[in-house]
Queue: 3 jobs
Job 1
Amino acid sequence: MTQPALRLLSLGAGVQSTTLALLSAAGDLPKLDGAIFADTGWEPAAVYRHLDRLEREILQPAGIRLYRVAAGNIRDDALDPAHRFASMPLFIRNPDGGDGMTRRQCTSEYKLKPIKRQARQLLGYPHPKPVPRGLYAEQWIGISRDEIGRAKDSGIQYLRSSFPLLDLTDAADGREGWTRDDCLRYLRANGWETTPKSACIGCPFHGNAQWRRLRDEQPGEWADAVEFDRAIRAGNARGNALGKPLLGEAYLHRSRKPLDQAPIDRVTAHEWAQRQTDVFGQVADAELEDGDPDGCSPWSCRSGRAAA
Ligand code: SF4
């Protein structure tokens, strides 16, 4: 195989991709040529703060440029009758009382598309210029050993996926591949224990624990999600403006109840099980999810687990 022209990090800004950024900057992994963060415009303030700090304290000093790319604002677009809406995975109560779900197009539209666009630009072949055969960027994706099933190739010849965490040796058991706990340990040891979960404020794939945290710790963002939940009850604005209203009602919470009335205080068996097994002997907030611990990852969206 030919050598990559560029080495790029797909920076979701969660635990695994932040670990990769630190490892590269420290020289423990090869030097990156850039990191790409796809911004949906509706991330929690903590994620933007984390990203700013990562850029300032790690990426810039190491000479790794951060590219913040976007394809719009997912929240505004959903409520704008003049804008085509790439659907979020909303929970639907059908007119006959049955349950449904809208297709998830948002990850592709708001994350993958702008990342691909940026990668092509960096390679020197922006759309529609064809990228010459054999020219490609190696794209690092933060997949840890415990989620190896999500390590899939992008299927794009100019952007080949690579999973460096899987090639590292786990110091605890000598096995090949770092786990998410290895990443957490590494982040704590380097002063990055506050790495947040990256996902849209109102992502329907949030677990109950994440909704609770939003309500209890970020009342402004919670109010924003509650308002959005109300506003999309009849579907997205564009569909209604075009005379194609949603048949049924849309909700952000899987109970298909208004968010501020949804049963988010119910602690699931899965959450209790994770309280028992926390490797640090303490209750780690990120582990108490009924959903996914890391949020929306562009190339291997883990968020699907919660809706399964
Ligand atoms: S976080 Fe949720 S709503 Fe946002 S892009 Fe990912 S799947 Fe879609």
Job 2
Amino acid sequence: QGQTCHAYCTYCFRWAQFVGLDALKFASREADTLTRYLGAHPEVTDVLFTGGDPLVMKTAVLRRYVEPLLQPGLEHVQTIRLGTKAPAYWPYRFVTDRDADDLLRLFEQVVRAGKHLAVMAHFSHPAELSTPVAEAALRRIIDTGAVVRCQAPLIRHVNDDADAWAAMWTKQVRLGAVPYYLFVERDTGPKHYFEVPLARALDIYQDAYRRVSGLGRTVRGPSMSATPGKVLVDGVAEVAGEKVFVLKMVQGRDPAWAGRTFFARYDEQAAWLDDLRPAFGRDAFFFEPGLRQMKASARALPVLQGGTPLDPTAPEPPGPEAAQV
Ligand code: SF4
């Protein structure tokens, strides 16, 4: 389907998908292509529908993509994720839209088929959770058996404030949702206006994290969806007399990289992985030789659609086990 979204966030890195520049669009029109691919790849366990926003689609259209995933032969597909801003920006999608009830019946169908349905909801600010209709939307989604996981980028002038994150995570838990990720604003678009340096992002994250109960501490961040993988800024430490960022690769282009901790020289201005230099006088981060090799051999990445291999503006690396639609 063509890609669009309920919102037009000015910091969005996916703008090219919405503005009619066909050469810049990625679109997967063929549900058949998806199911054929999945049938041939029993190692794929997760399918992520993203965009734009897949819930811009009418339920009847979304159903064409989702229902085939429930059929016999695709039991290895265990999780279906829907990345969406709808619960925040257009909660009526789940409450009063003409096909709202149909959408919820589709969610129930997925759950009844024994799959995990994860609604990856983009909430940027507690104000988005303050309306009765937003609360009703979450309640109705959760009642289907789906799990709502909440994530958002940290954006200067919007939510660069620990109070906002602590309030948001607390409210999400109260409403039955799961705080999931605080992302670092991508190194694309008008980033000079929106970016928050990593050191400050970490302060905001840690400050908010300390203020929520254990149930809210399911959240991870600050996390960069960078070219080599998803990299978490896990802390600042002094090691062997050097002040460093402690970084963790939570997902890697090479699955063997996942879970590796590594270190970068502390830099108060750095706002993205590319701004960082390895600590302890090293020439390169551990992943750089492998990444160079991947670029050289232009090895296909484990995504069906949604990004050019090794394109830093591509959607977050879904992990080796996920297909992205
Ligand atoms: S909700 Fe997400 S995809 Fe839609 S405009 Fe905002 S950042 Fe972009």
Job 3
Amino acid sequence: MIEMKDITKKIGDKIILKNISFNISSGQFVTVLGPNGAGKSTLFKILALLMKPTSGTLKINGVTVNESGIALRAKLGVISHNSFLYDSLSARDNLLFYAKMYGLKNAERAVKEVIQQVGLELSYYQPVKTFSRGMLQRLAIARCLLTNPEIVLLDEPYTGLDQQAIEILNKVLKTLKTEKRTVLMITHNFEEGVTLSDRIFILNRGQLVFDEPNTYVLDTLKEIYLKKVGVFS
Ligand SMILES: Nc1ncnc2c1ncn2[C@@H]1O[C@H](COP(=O)(O)OP(=O)(O)O)[C@@H](O)[C@H]1O
Ligand SMILES: [Mg+2]
């Protein structure tokens, strides 16, 4: 459960997010659409507890996020442009590091499982610095899955992925949906992005201009999107 109320983010004089409010119940899959600069990544960082809002409140599973937000982090799985991986470590050692940080039992086995899930078992002992963008993103997905997070947040996860990685990501997202995890995914990719989605947000110029259940066919949604953000945005 995510409860966001009147979240505003200012950087200097600039208002990046303005009075954003929504509740996302457990098991819901939300897709966030919006043009470049709309504030999507800023919203993502606030939800991922990587950035503090200027005002407003955020509760995760009923717990208000404040300085003690660290404990909540274990409940969150995060996939973004920053893979949070260490270059010189192997795929295995990167994930073992996280597994130990989160105090996972049977760390070695858990690591093996998620690495298989994303099809990287042949690169198990390979340093991450030799990985392609697609491989890195697959490992980032594995890292996210390692802690069995209740809530998964993704910021443009399709960017730069090859076809194989896209299919792995789609499969993982499907599994998350089947397992009734809460998912919030930011994407530019209408086709991939809304297939699994229960609910659509459109963010424009720092404001949540659309928040509806996903009952639309793709073409209707595209029309709505263009109306909401302006055709030439
Ligand atoms: N650290 C920052 N300092 C100043 N402006 C920023 C900063 N981060 C983001 N912005 C501005 O906030 C707006 C929203 O950015 P962002 O959240 O990255 O948008 P999106 O992910 O939707 O493209 C943009 O205009 C961007 O230039
Ligand atoms: Mg962004």
